[in-house]
RNA sequence: GGUGGUAUAGCCAAGUGGUAAGGCAGUGGUCUGCAAAACCGUGAUCGCCGGUUCGACUCCGGUUACCACCUCCA
């Protein structure tokens, strides 16, 4: 039975989708004004793994995500880079696609840009005005937060305290316009010329911070969805405001389960653009070629817990992933080389069955990837034990390999095969060493092994002959 | 100040009212020409104080430290 932790109720709840077998899921995407950093990637990675697991579990998942391609940040950065807002957004949207593709994150079923749903946004805001939950002031439109009786539940904040906090930071102009400091903008008037603005019943302007998500969900998934995801920092105000807008608009429960991921920390501090302690995926992958290791690091920690990012944790992830890959390659190689009886091994099949069940139990518990990983390591040990046996059964060997591939693919690791190859010189050294070993010239063979090691190639001797691995 | 979270072996990190998964490192062994890899074995009483209980790391109260949200932020 699948259970998920719902931020709305702060408890783990049994998961029941609105439509059996079908899941409607929305995850907040990036504002495309620069390269994504590891924190953004963590969110995308975590929800990709959740989506992959739900799919593995047999659900049909409709996954919608947005690109925010408008707003002050986009305008500012466009001016800095000498591009139009649309060009800038296009540039970083493509960068997002490239970075996430390297991390093996499956693109959402539907991906929409805020600028593509402008008509729907205006209609949505109009409806909120007609319902009396919004008001216009000099080209701005605000939502009457206090009128929505469940306002703030998701973020577990007290309304009056929120009001005090809000009042303290409002600028005088904004304070004058709002009926209540906690009201939030649905539409912001834009009076400058030459910057992104759309025509509306309230004059030229742009949508407020939160409306695009409400609109896209309504447009692509309908008034009620099963899962809504994003970073925990979005619980307030972003998701809080989404609930108010959407439930006022539809009169229905907006989201069944709110899922929020934790942060990537550096030196026990949140990685963020404002703190300036961020590492972009773009730069990290350009200097560190193994994107799979990065993905593995981002996925193996439970999605609600913080990830400590450092060179050490990255190395640790590399070591763990290597152990998994080695087991896979070891058995795969033996199966490929030897002629083996195509039959099954009942005892091993039984263990494999248990492992698969354990994996599902782990992941059914609010997507507990930490425990899922422990089960994967059990499978690794089983494979290593099996690969040592004299009488391998081909079918069972394939079942083990398929299982390992399937389970790791849920973690975003799609290919356990070795992609690297040796260059001509390295191959010659390796061949020469094989020859030396044949002649039992161990002095020469050890020297050649050292030479290869100096080039970053680790050589091991196995029953099947030499085996190599890039360090 | 309010709210949410975290504190478990050298490090990363699961977990349950009944004497603590897994990975890394270390260490002993098997295997190996040597090595590596792999396999087998090996270590903690769970921030602190108090309470409930036959029994708590797991429940309750308090306390300390750290993080996050309350402003755009995954």
From TrEMBL:
Q: How is the cofactor bound?
A: Binds 1 zinc ion per subunit.
Q: What is its main location?
A: cytoplasm
Q: Name one Pfam family in it.
A: DALR_2
Cofactor(s) this protein cannot do without = Zn(2+)
Q: Where is this motif: 'HIGH' region?
A: 30-40
In chain numbering, motif 'KMSKS' region lies across 270-274
Where in the numbering of this chain does the Cysteinyl-tRNA synthetase class Ia DALR domain appear? Answer: 358-422
Q: Which residues bind Zn(2+)?
A: 28, 213, 238, 242
Q: What is its EC number?
A: 6.1.1.16
What would you give as a GO molecular function for this chain, any one? cysteine-tRNA ligase activity
Q: Which residues bind ATP?
A: 273
Describe the reaction catalysed, as an equation: tRNA(Cys) + L-cysteine + ATP = L-cysteinyl-tRNA(Cys) + AMP + diphosphate
Q: Which UniProt keywords apply?
A: Aminoacyl-tRNA synthetase, ATP-binding, Cytoplasm, Ligase, Metal-binding, Nucleotide-binding, Protein biosynthesis, Zinc
Where is this protein localized, as stated in its record?
Cytoplasm
NCBIfam families in UniProt: cysS
Q: How does it assemble?
A: Monomer.
What PANTHER family does its record include? Answer: CYSTEINE--TRNA LIGASE, CYTOPLASMIC (PTHR10890:SF3), CYSTEINYL-TRNA SYNTHETASE (PTHR10890)
Family the entry assigns: Belongs to the class-I aminoacyl-tRNA synthetase family.
Q: What is this protein called?
A: Cysteine--tRNA ligase
Q: Which organism is it from?
A: Convivina praedatoris
What gene name is listed for this protein?
cysS
